[in-house]
From TrEMBL:
Keywords: ATP-binding, Hydrolase, Kinase, Magnesium, Manganese, Metal-binding, Nucleotide-binding, Phosphoprotein, Protein phosphatase, Transferase
Name the record gives this protein: protein-serine/threonine phosphatase
Residues in GAF domain copies: 136-299
EC id: 3.1.3.16
MF terms (GO), sorted A to Z: ATP binding; kinase activity; metal ion binding; protein serine/threonine phosphatase activity
Catalysed reactions, as listed in the record: O-phospho-L-seryl-[protein] + H2O = L-seryl-[protein] + phosphate
Organism: Streptomyces viridochromogenes
Domain PPM-type phosphatase intervals: 317-561
Highest taxon of the lineage: Bacteria
Length: 706
């Protein structure tokens, strides 16, 4: 009697599923069980699929993939549907995958089974609470593992997973180092229990080693099975008192990177559903560990790059204190195009001609982009700037040469392959440590700010040119200011200002409030405060994981002149040049005066002062061929404060008081000063003249400087 006849007698059919061709071969009994005529038949996969309940088809697809991966039997219950979509019977399928290269065939049986009782249906692999619990568990596990940022976090998540119905009480994750097995982490064991398993040879007769060698899972449902298959290493596992073990490969991109052990104190049969859950968790665990490993490698690389590219400031420069912070953007390689630098300039002679503490250069910049190329260009540009500064060039010449250098290395044939030309913004300051004079050249970068001794903070508008690398022939005019003892200068990249939904203006107001509230003594604390205001506590450290909400790199550099003795409160003072070619800077002059008088009590006087400054500067630009130099100073008298504003130019022609008509467009300047100022005048200065006015603030209850 043929085997097919014997199986048909017990209502069991044979079938073969060729994965490569998609053809399913059924004997007569298997065809009958699928609701077809009881005769051998060859059908397409789609034709067979139409006979199964769609939910069950999805189930068996996962079971088959698991069996192919593990080389085990695929078992499942399946509901058979007629052409009207009604369930006509339930069958049990058992099949064995025969693997041929990348393809396989499933050879198995179909057998009709009785309907499940109502009380037991919930625990079948077809429908019910068990499936819903499993799906919810896998969703939660996937989400938690995806959010883990380090190997330690991944292991903590793995230890906290509570699998539906068969949670393990002992876990271990094994890795591979060369030809040896290592223990990456474990849970449910005492400290030191991992000792015998650490640095175990992959040739050892141990389940995890065999899993790494073969890439196939090993399930040991009983201690007897463990002893039978791995007698040499059974004594190592016996002392933990477990009853069942699962060793599942950790596979990423087709490569077995380790093994995951789940051990149970209660017996586990390791049904197809339970193996499916364990395999799915192992797949997610492997991906999470791979991501964490890449992130940790990138973090180590970025920290090394940061340490290499960022200078060590000081110590040992008398008369100054310097502090700086660099915070890269979150995600990926944590180094970008922002940088800062401090350069000791050659010689000990100041530009004023005397011998003293010498000069230093402060540099801050931002290369376009947040990738490895931006970091590489930043390193090259920083080296070039150091070279040009060390040759003794003036700030304008340093930036001109740097712009030509960057244009040359980013505008070549390889520019298109690397995302096109790049540009960089930059602020270069040459500081004379003896006199406190600061010469500034700016290339499209945010202006510097100065915190004065009385807490007033001024944004110092400076003349500037295009960002580096755009036009090789761009000129960079120089602006000079003086930093008095006790004052603090801040330069930063736009990341400090624009992060958190701010634009440059609102971001500057936030930073200004922080500078004004600080006592100006501890620059390290001030640097931390500035960064923490943007990203929260701890974000200024560059030695650990960084916050994901970072929108842009941040670089900030602070310099303060240290007074030799007690600080003598000097008049509050600002100075700026408005060139003939930059009439738009008249608006900057008005804003500079408003910042200088931020605590002036009389708003009407403030508006009057701004109006007079606007008229004075405009007259210089309209009626002379030279630039206007604005000097504004607030000083305390015995009873109140006095504002003195002076605008000078190089023209010898003195202004004349006129009486303009209502429709006149000029001639109002001196008339306005006579009406609004407490005192005013015009002083010849040899080469040129100065027009000035004074306003006296009414005394306040807080005293003359309150």
């Amino acid at each position: 009697m043929r085997t097919e006849d014997v199986l048909a007698a017990i209502a069991t059919g044979l079938w073969r599923w060729d994965n490569a061709s998609g053809i399913v071969t059924l004997d007569g009994e298997a065809a009958r069980l699928l609701g077809l005529p009881a005769a051998p038949v060859r059908l397409s996969e789609a034709a067979v699929r139409s006979r199964f309940h769609p939910v069950d088809w999805n189930e068996i697809d996962g079971v088959v993939n698991l069996a192919v991966a593990e080389g085990t039997l695929a078992e499942a219950r399946l509901r058979i549907m007629d052409e009207h979509g009604r369930v006509i019977r339930t069958v049990r399928s058992r099949s064995k995958p025969l693997i041929e290269g990348n393809d396989y065939q499933l050879v198995g049986t179909l057998q009709e089974v009785a309907e499940q009782l109502p009380g037991t249906a919930a625990r079948t692999p077809i429908t019910g609470d068990w499936r819903r619990s499993r799906e919810a568990f896998l969703l939660d596990a996937g989400r938690a593992l995806a959010e883990a940022r380090s190997t330690a976090e991944v292991l903590r998540v793995a230890a906290s997973l509570s699998m539906p119905g068969f949670s393990p009480d002992g876990l271990a994750v094994f890795g591979v180092a060369g030809e040896r097995l290592t223990v990456i982490g474990h849970h449910g064991h005492s400290e030191g229990d991992e000792g015998p398993f650490t640095s175990m040879s992959l040739g050892t007769d141990y389940p995890a080693a065999e899993v790494v060698r073969t890439g196939r899972a090993i399930y040991l449902p009983t201690p007897d099975e463990y002893l039978r298959r791995f007698p040499m290493t059974w004594p190592l596992a016996q002392r933990f008192g477990r009853r069942s073990w699962a060793f599942v490969p950790l596979v990423v991109a087709g490569r077995t990177m380790g093994a995951w052990m789940a051990a149970f104190k209660h017996p586990v049969a390791f049904t197809p559903d339970e193996r499916s859950v364990l395999t799915t968790v192992a797949r997610m665990l492997a991906q999470a560990l791979a991501r964490a490993g890449v992130a940790e490698s990138e973090r180590e690389l970025s920290l090394g790059l940061q340490r290499t590219m960022m200078p060590v400031l000081g110590p040992g420069i008398p008369g100054i204190q310097v502090a700086a912070r660099y915070v890269p953007t979150g995600g990926g390689l944590q180094v970008g195009g922002d940088w800062y630098d401090m350069i000791r300039l050659p010689g000990g002679t100041s530009r004023t001609g005397g011998r003293g503490a010498g000069r230093i250069a402060l540099v801050i910049g931002d290369v376009q982009g947040h990738d490895v190329r931006a970091a590489g260009l930043m390193g090259q540009l920083r080296i070039a700037l150091r070279a040009y500064a060390s040759e003794g060039h003036r700030p304008d010449a340093v930036l001109s040469r740097a712009s030509r250098f960057l244009y040359g290395i980013t505008d070549g044939d390889d520019a298109a392959e690397n995302g096109g030309p790049r540009f960089a913004t930059c602020l270069y300051l040459e500081v004379d440590l003896e006199t406190g004079t600061v010469d500034i050249a700016r290339a499209g970068h945010p202006d510097p700010a100065v915190r004065m001794n009385d807490g007033t903070v001024l944004l110092r508008p400076t003349a500037g040119g295009l960002p580096l690398g755009i036009d090789p022939d761009t000129d960079y005019p120089t602006t000079r200011l003086t930093l008095d003892p006790g004052e603090t200068l801040m330069i930063c990249t736009d990341g400090l200002l624009e992060t958190g939904g701010h634009d440059l203006d609102s971001g500057w107001e936030r930073v200004r409030a922080l500078l004004e509230s600080h006592d100006g003594e501890d620059l390290e604390h001030l640097a931390d405060t500035l960064v923490e205001a943007v990203h929260g506590p701890g974000s200024h450290h560059t030695t650990g994981p960084l916050a994901d909400r970072r929108e842009d790199d941040i670089a900030v550099l602070l310099l303060s002149r240290r007074p030799a003795g007690p600080v003598v409160e000097a008049p509050r003072r600002t100075l700026m040049t408005i060139a003939q070619a930059e009439p738009e800077r008249i608006a900057e002059a008005r804003e500079q005066l408003r910042q200088l008088l931020h605590d002036w009590e009389d708003e009407d006087q403030l508006d009057s002062a701004v109006l007079m400054v606007s008229e004075m500067v405009t007259n210089v630009l309209v009626h002379t061929d030279g630039d206007a130099l604005l000097v504004a100073e607030v000083a305390c008298t015995e009873k109140s404060r006095r504002l003195r504003v002076e605008v000078s130019d190089t023209s010898d022609e003195l202004p004349h008081k006129r009486h303009p008509g209502e429709m006149a467009s000029s001639g109002r300047g001196l008339v306005l000063m006579e009406m609004l100022a407490h005192a005013w005048g015009v002083d010849p200065r040899g080469e040129g003249k100065a027009i000035w006015f004074e306003l006296n603030e009414p005394p306040t209850a807080n005293g003359c400087c309150g």
